[in-house]
């Protein structure tokens, strides 16, 4: 049975008592070209900030003061190849599109301290809302239309350990390119290391075709009657505020192996599912299928088992384009795949069939399908649409970054309770790299049913 974190630990600290000691603009170490940078239709709908926190234990050779100096210099250095992160997002009044004004206005670097030791914080895996204090989300002294696109805050703890909080505008980087940004930031914190990977910044490779050619139906996308670049009145996956239970379900490597074996189960339906060349039994596919079944069947609805359930999940399109995009492409190169079924089917069909549907959703993302989705965004100005989204931070490897002061003890995004987004995180124990934590927020009764199904379906033979 999966280990269950029963909500916030009793010892969780809700106020880290953080004091900002210094905050300054950091500029590129060398002069960069002043220009406007094109944002693709994928970038356009992601104009919001994403915050991550990276916790480091104390290192006697690198006290927080030295780390702060190194990070400040490293940030200045990486702002040369990542010049757009020192710019500002602007709305082009002629095209009605967002673009980046690469004007070297600067990123922000802040130094702070907490009154607690790192070990006082307790369970780093549980998404404590207090972690938001470890990141400056916006700069009050700067106008709302001139906010920096990258902010780094170094917070020292009484024990000598520290946290590096990073806030970046999602239109700038997706998860994969953010990982490369961190790799490059880490190398520049050393005295004499070159960039780990030179970023590829030309986003016109994902521009819509002219004229747009929407060659596929896109039920995973929702049309919005607003000009591109403007804020929607109801953001994607926005839902009414309600009382939510928040729990973490841990799937060990043994659980994932069990789910993979279950996906190989024999029988006519399983044989039909595995007959397709698109059928891939991966850790992500089996976890997604398991979570999808639990989430769909836990939802109370008047339609009951006849209700359609749609799960959304991200697919990296870099290797799927023709020609493939460079792995170092910095923009958002992730599109939303989907799988849809009636709840009755989700309850009755073999697990292998659900895995096949998830696998097929990813396989659907060919070059032509991706181009069609990008062109759809040009025509309809829409957003992903489904019952819920699985957002995976599982395999990104943020905790594998090697800084001069060592690897992080744990890395995680700052998350909020959302019933329509389920998050996958790696385990804090590096020895259990294949384990995954599933973060779920649901109303109380739905959570009870989800929890029951989550464990029951891990035990079914």
From TrEMBL:
<dbReference type="InterPro" id="IPR050317">
    <property type="entry name" value="Plant_Fungal_Acyltransferase"/>
</dbReference>
<comment type="similarity">
    <text>Belongs to the plant acyltransferase family.</text>
</comment>
<dbReference type="Pfam" id="PF02458">
    <property type="entry name" value="Transferase"/>
</dbReference>
<dbReference type="InterPro" id="IPR023213">
    <property type="entry name" value="CAT-like_dom_sf"/>
</dbReference>
<dbReference type="GO" id="GO:0016747">
    <property type="term" value="F:acyltransferase activity, transferring groups other than amino-acyl groups"/>
</dbReference>
<protein>
    <submittedName>
        <fullName>DH200=94 genomic scaffold, scaffold_926</fullName>
    </submittedName>
</protein>
